[in-house]
Structure formats: structure tokens, C-alpha cells
Amino acid sequence: MDLKDYGWDEGFAVSFADLSERGLEPARVVRQSRDLSTLIASSGERLGEVSGLFRNRARGPADFPAVGDWAAVRTVPGGRAVIESLLPRRSAFTRKAAGEAVEAQVVAANVDTVFLVSGLDGDFNLRRMERYLTTAWSSRAEPVVVLNKADLHADSAAFAAAAAGVAPGVPVLAVSALAERGLESLGPYLLPGRTIALLGSSGVGKSTIINRLLGEERFATAAVSDAEAGRGRHTTSARELARLPGGALLVDTPGMRELGLWADDEGLDRTFEEIDALAARCRFPDCGHEHEPGCAVRAAVEAGRIDRARWESFLKLRREMRFLELKKDEKARRQHEKAVGRDFHARLKEIKRHKPRYR
Questions:
Q1: Would the pTM count as exceeding 0.70?
Q2: E strand or H helix at 192, and its extent?
Q3: 53-86 burial, b if ≥16 CB within 10 A, otherwise e?
């Protein structure tokens, strides 16, 4: 099997050089379900799991394999693969892991283009789109907004214009996977060896789009009733990478009820580039664009040059990012304190062990 068909290139080969000397083999993660990975190597497809050393060194969910990762593996008796390490990721679409813990979870790695899929039904939501765009730009992949279910409207141009208004510089494509309309507009992004991830809420039709592009019903789909419109139905339970007949690689992912934001300032600035551009005119370089005097952004909002709802969305996302940063700092501080405490008690035990005894 030629790994170039799965995105392997000279850059990855250079990164793998030292690992190759250890007798390890490169393989790409094409399916991820709980602790088990399905890998494609030059010797074929196999199941694998991380080694004990890998698990011990992992600092959190983001360190574990995700669909799209390139791994260094060794084969053990029985034909299974043991994942010893991962190659550095070129991009990673990351969200906050579910639960109270402040941890990142990688949804897809080494992605070139992200199709942010939104349904032209109850799912269409500009504020949610801004959240996805911020995360996509932060991933270092190129986002493309895909408006599915265009067959529900005689004219989808108004939806496309609204989406373009919150996605400056990002292509916006209207398609209908069910009616097989407009899918040819995706063609320029479906190049051999390129990896595209489809992300969006439950029920927006990601699996249907992939099935149409594959030409077969490989991924499970389910109809969405009127009562479920806007909520969707969760049909994909595992992340999986599929190779199209033309050579492009598509990653289907489980639908998300809510995207836990995990982004950086660059991603936020690219999503709200008009706010970022105006920020240079504010009186204070650290202006928060809320109550500060001489704020060029707030003046533009008051003058109607920036949509108020968009400005409020920017502030909301930034507050959420800052809150997560504080929680991450707090977690790092606690971990440091525990490490210092363990070191102190280890040293104390060593001193007691060697302390001379007097009669």
C-alpha cells in the first residue's frame, strides 16, 4: 500500500527519520473508537493501541491518537500494532473535552481543509458559525463554509450572504447532498492526498455528503423530523477517514450538540478581522472594546458599521477563551504544587533513611 495515497510526503518522512532507525513503521490513523485505532501502513491495515510508555507520558486527551495522526508503530505477535509515538501535527481541530475538566480533545489531525457544515433548516445559526470558524482558524487548517439542505429553499442566496458576512475571506458554498445539487463546487478542494474534515452539529448531513462523494452508502444516516430540526440526530459514533475515488481523504466526525471552545487569539482575530483591524485605532493598545474611552471598535458599533450582535459574539467568545486560560493556569499551578510536594516528601524520606542513629 502506497502511503502517499494517504497524505504521506517528504515533510513527514523527514520527521520520521529518527523513528525509522528504531525499527518503527509509519502508519496513519484512519479510524478512532475509544482506545482502539485502525491504522493504514505500507504493509496494510491493522488495529492498534498505544504502548504503556506512551500512556504514562500523555498529559491529557489531546496527546492520544486522533483520526488523521501519523504514528510510529511496531507490530506484535498476532498482527496488532503498538503505537509508540505520534509525529508532530501540522494542524489539529481541537475542542474542549466533555465534562468539568479543562482539557483539550483533538477531533481530527493533519487536516488541510475544514468543511464547516451548516444545515439550512433549524440548524442555521450565525453565532454558532462564528464559534466553529474561530476554532477552525485556530486549528491552522483552511475553513470552507458548506450550507447543506439548500433544496429546502427556492433561493439560498440570502443564507449564503449572511454566512459570508460572518466569515470574511472564507468560501461559502450552498449544496444539497440529498438532492445531489451543488456538490461539484466542492471539487477544487478534493485533491489527491489532501485531507478534508467535515464538522458541524448533529443532523446537518455530513455523512450524507460523504456518501454522495464516495458513491456508496458507507456511513449511516438518519432522517431528521420537524421536531428534531435544529437538534439533529447523532448517526456517526466514531471518527473515520475515507478515501474518495479521486484520491482525496475525508474525515467524518460525530455531530456535536455543542462545540466546547478551544481556540487562540489568532483564530479569534481572523474570524472577526474587521474588529481586529479597527483595534489598531483604539486609544489604548490593550483596549477591551467594552467600556474604555476612545475605543474605535465600540464607536463603529454605535455608528452601525459593525453589527452589534457580531460585536457581542466577539466579546462572548473572548471571555470564554480568557476563562479557559485562567482555568488552565490554575490546573498547571496545582500540578506544579503537587510535583513540588512529591519531591519534598521524597527528599525528606531520603534524609530520614540516611539519618545517623545515636545511642
A1: yes
A2: none
A3: ebeeeeeeebbbbbbbbbbbbebeeeeebbbbbb
